[in-house]
UniProtKB/TrEMBL annotation:
Keywords: FAD, Flavoprotein, Oxidoreductase
Organism: Actinomycetospora endophytica
Source taxon at top rank: Bacteria
Source species taxonomy: Bacteria, Bacillati, Actinomycetota, Actinomycetes, Pseudonocardiales
PANTHER family: FAD DEPENDENT OXIDOREDUCTASE DOMAIN-CONTAINING PROTEIN, PEROXISOMAL SARCOSINE OXIDASE
Required co-factors: FAD
Protein name: FAD-dependent oxidoreductase
InterPro entries, sorted: FAD-dep_OxRdtase, FAD/NAD-bd_sf, MTOX
Amino acid sequence: MKITVVGAGIVGLATADALVRRGHQVTVLEADRPMGARSAGASRVFRLAHAEPALVEAAHKAQELWEQYSTRAGRPLIGPEGTVVSGPRAHDWARAMAEAGAEHTLGDAPPELLGHAHGPVLTDPHGGALDLAGAGRLLVDAHKSIMRPGRVVDLDELVGDAIVVTAGAGTAELVAPLGIEVPRELCHHVRFSFRPAVPITAIPPTHLDGTPGPELASTYQHRTPEGHWAIGGHLPDQLTSVDHTADEVRRRSYEAITAHVVARIPELEPEPVGELHCLPTAGGADGVHTARVGNVHVLWGENLAKLAPLLGENLADAVESDGVAHAIGTPPDLADHGR
């Protein structure tokens, strides 16, 4: 089959990789640069911990596929440090993990955790820092010959047996003429990276904290391949919409996150040494949504990088069967559709 993949983020590249390994003729189109936009940056948090058992199970399957990627890369792409979830959601996420049969504990925070955690915490021993840049290099190097620069404006201009759209923030506009409704409202999000202020001997776990603070509704942190700590925080939705400029949101994020570091993570220097800006969907939560119209297969969602190898395999399955890829963690009002 001749297949065009639109978008060379981590999910598009994983899809192309799965299709090529199955013997298909694949072309990948990217408007900007591979592993840009929502796939930019060195690292992400990998976790089995989720609010829904289906997402826990999907992450476990993705972990097995990440191990195959790691074998190809010649080194682990997911760190061994584990993930800690604290705050009000810890109990609910622990129930989801128990229902999915995933290993976890609910109790005290591990001593190597950077900063503070209130109340009992959920520890996911299979979580860790995902080397996203390393995974991107693996796939880009493997498939340079099939990658083409090009901004797709009209899917009808593409030819082939199948078209797969994994275009991130550009997906909604691209598939609207097909009658596929993808959330369009975007927001600014900025995370910052910090150097350690003291020697850190044991690798701290990645940490998702849902405890609301004076400025931030929740925070996350993880080690980067450079040995820094990436710290992200979620401002109130009304302060991050694209009605505000990127500079405005960056300033608010900088003030809130540096204050958070000073108050709660004294192990880090208070001044950031790097930052990453992206445009996620406003109000988006963990979940994978899919649709098919004719020979066009579409996938969208939030926090997808950790599931990328699984999503690539699912999309390849859908293309080969002329079906619809699996949605994961999809509420009933956003169920799959295809015609």
